[in-house]
Amino acid sequence: MIKWREEFRLGIETIDEQHKKLFAIANEAYDLLKNDFYIDKYDRIVAILKELRDYTIYHFNSEEDYMKSIGYKKLLSHKVEHNDFVEKINSIDLDKLDENQDEYILELLNFVVDWIEQHILGTDKQIVS
C-alpha cells in the first residue's frame, strides 16, 4: 500500500531507516486487511497497533535527539506533531475496532499513510533544508 520512494529520503541514514520501518509496519496492516484467511483479526490488529506505537515513540525520540544535536529551531513545533500522532494512536477505541475490523484497519491505514507521507515530505524535509 505504501512504498518507500526516493523522495522520502532525508539523507540522514538512521532516520531514513527508521522511516522505512514505519512503512513496513503500515504494510503489515495492509497485508492483514487483504488476508481473507483470518476471520477474527482483532489480536493481530492490536499487536500491529502496539508495534506502531512503540516504534513510533522510539523513532520520534531518535529524531528529536538529532534535531537537538543540530540546534534545529523548529524542534518544539515538530515535537507537537509527534505528540499529536502518538495521542491519536493511543486514543483508538478497541471496542469499535472489534465491531468492524476491516473497516477500522482501512481507516487506520489511511490516517497512518497520509500522516507519514505529509510529515516526511513536509515537516521532516525542513530539517535538512
Automatic annotation (TrEMBL):
<dbReference type="InterPro" id="IPR050669">
    <property type="entry name" value="Hemerythrin"/>
</dbReference>
<feature type="binding site">
    <location>
        <position position="124"/>
    </location>
    <ligand>
        <name>Fe cation 1</name>
    </ligand>
</feature>
<protein>
    <recommendedName>
        <fullName>Bacteriohemerythrin</fullName>
    </recommendedName>
</protein>
<dbReference type="InterPro" id="IPR012312">
    <property type="entry name" value="Hemerythrin-like"/>
</dbReference>
<dbReference type="InterPro" id="IPR016131">
    <property type="entry name" value="Haemerythrin_Fe_BS"/>
</dbReference>
<feature type="binding site">
    <location>
        <position position="119"/>
    </location>
    <ligand>
        <name>Fe cation 2</name>
    </ligand>
</feature>
<dbReference type="InterPro" id="IPR012827">
    <property type="entry name" value="Hemerythrin_metal-bd"/>
</dbReference>
<feature type="binding site">
    <location>
        <position position="82"/>
    </location>
    <ligand>
        <name>Fe cation 2</name>
    </ligand>
</feature>
<feature type="binding site">
    <location>
        <position position="19"/>
    </location>
    <ligand>
        <name>Fe cation 1</name>
    </ligand>
</feature>
<feature type="binding site">
    <location>
        <position position="59"/>
    </location>
    <ligand>
        <name>Fe cation 1</name>
    </ligand>
</feature>
<dbReference type="InterPro" id="IPR023504">
    <property type="entry name" value="Bacteriohemerythrin-like"/>
</dbReference>
<dbReference type="GO" id="GO:0005506">
    <property type="term" value="F:iron ion binding"/>
</dbReference>
<keyword id="KW-0408">Iron</keyword>
<dbReference type="GO" id="GO:0005344">
    <property type="term" value="F:oxygen carrier activity"/>
</dbReference>
<feature type="binding site">
    <location>
        <position position="63"/>
    </location>
    <ligand>
        <name>Fe cation 2</name>
    </ligand>
</feature>
<comment type="function">
    <text>Oxygen-binding protein. May be involved in a storage mechanism or for delivery to oxygen-requiring enzymes. The oxygen-binding site contains two iron atoms.</text>
</comment>
<feature type="binding site">
    <location>
        <position position="124"/>
    </location>
    <ligand>
        <name>Fe cation 2</name>
    </ligand>
</feature>
<dbReference type="InterPro" id="IPR035938">
    <property type="entry name" value="Hemerythrin-like_sf"/>
</dbReference>
<feature type="binding site">
    <location>
        <position position="78"/>
    </location>
    <ligand>
        <name>Fe cation 2</name>
    </ligand>
</feature>
<feature type="domain" description="Hemerythrin-like">
    <location>
        <begin position="11"/>
        <end position="127"/>
    </location>
</feature>
<keyword id="KW-0561">Oxygen transport</keyword>
<dbReference type="Pfam" id="PF01814">
    <property type="entry name" value="Hemerythrin"/>
</dbReference>
<feature type="binding site">
    <location>
        <position position="63"/>
    </location>
    <ligand>
        <name>Fe cation 1</name>
    </ligand>
</feature>
<keyword id="KW-0813">Transport</keyword>
<comment type="similarity">
    <text>Belongs to the hemerythrin family.</text>
</comment>
<comment type="subunit">
    <text>Monomer.</text>
</comment>
<keyword id="KW-0479">Metal-binding</keyword>
